[in-house]
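Our preliminary data section would be incomplete without showing what the modeling component actually yields. Below, a chain of 172 amino acids is followed by its predicted structure, encoded as tokens that our downstream tools consume directly.
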Amino acid sequence: MKERVPRSVRRRLKLLEEEVREWKNKYLHSLAEYDNFRKRIRKESEQAIKFANEQLIFELLAVLDNFERAIDSGKNHSDFDSFYKGVEMIYRQLLDILKKEGLRPFESRGEPFDPSKHEVFSTVEKDDVPPYTVVEEIQKGYYLKDKLLRPARVVVAKEKKEVSDEGTDNRD
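Predicted structure:
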């Protein structure tokens, strides 16, 4: 035996089915919008990463141009002083650009050895400076903003061994 569904229930069911279709369409539309948003953000991020250094590279082109001029000048002239001054100017120009980007060299000579920013290249016996003092900088160290970019490679003083006439160590 088949039961008859009242007309009001059928109307209500029809309205609810229509509402479900609307919500489903809204959900699918939102899902598609979200997917498109994710794709757009990924593409924008890839572009930002790809061209992040564009301004820096553009500024370095002037340095490259000056190097080319210096090389051409060196081919045609034997004046070492002007060549040296030109290369020094290019060095300062490059350093200024990099400083603008947050690069900061630090001085190590005469400073106490600090393993957080120095890398020992070698040690040398010295009696005119305290032990563990940086006496020579082999390679300059740099910070990029607040982060150590490259430690300085340094020569560090160590105590001079005292040797007696017999050739034995008398530091004890």
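Residues 105-164 form a domain with the Nucleotide Exchange Factor Grpe; Chain A, domain 2 fold (CATH 2.30.22.10). Helices lie at 7-50, 54-76, 80-100. Preliminary results of this kind motivate Aim 1 of the renewal.
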